[in-house]
Amino acid sequence: MLTIEQRITSVVPSLVEEAVTAPSMHNAQPWKFVHRSGTRHLSLYGDPDRALPVGDPDNRGLHIGCGAALLNLRVAAAHRGWNAVARLLPDLRDPWRLADVMLEDSGKADLRLAGLHSAVRLRRTSRYPFSDEAVPPEFLGELSAAALLEGTRLIIPGTWHAGAVLDLVHEAELCESADQAMRAEILTWTRMGKAGEGPDAEGVPAYAFGPRQYGVTAPVRDFDVPLGSRDRASAAFEERPQIALLGTAADLAVDWLRSGQAMERVLLEATADGLATSVISQPLEWPELRNLTRDPNSTMGFVHMIFRFGYGPSGPVTPRRPVSEVLDIT
Fold it and tell me: How far apart are CA 27 and CA 9, in angstroms?
């Protein structure tokens, strides 16, 4: 009969396989997992080789992506009847060691997390237009509750605030188009299917770009701006995107990891509710614009992510690196 440690070692690859379906900035997948065979421990590391020094100089986005993968790991564990107890930033001497996870076979798995398991592989980033149908208030309440469970806040902005945030998205696009280094970095993670572009298991592939904007600036990043693919269709996006802001009172690495877990929990909850989703980070990548995204009348000190919700196509599956590249078992 296998011990619990042996059972955990045998299932760790499948846990990690589900963990890495998480979203990350430009689909850079900046994570690495380490498991010592015969133990109940799994460590999550940030991968400095997958950092984005121009768009994410403080590695805030890297931490958020890794936090999202950690949430997926917790969901996968709960689905199997285990508790994944995470300790964030366990070693201050090693800033790339982002979390240690203890897998407990306590018989008291988090049923709310387990209930999100079916959404893990269904969640997609949709760069397509959504309909104008309003998201029901009870769904928005569920999303706010999901963020709160991870120690963060989700705010549904009023009309003026939403308009101001979307104006900042457009301003960030102008800043991006004028910044050669930023555009070059994004191109590094853009895959057009050409030979020599880079591994086909990472980055944003052309088939996930979505349609070109028609009439107004779309509320999603257009990875095809400098390339101008001729065969992309055009479409009209919603005039008033339904958005929400995720944030915390402080702006430390631990807050970024919590926000990453909250981001993924919100996205999974939205997916389970039948919503299409995308994230908007453009204005958050420019410090002078990020400060303007928050409502000055709110107690939310720092915005970490902007969500777009609605009804529409869910978007295609984007590639992921194989488990063998992101998991070390020693």
Answer: 27
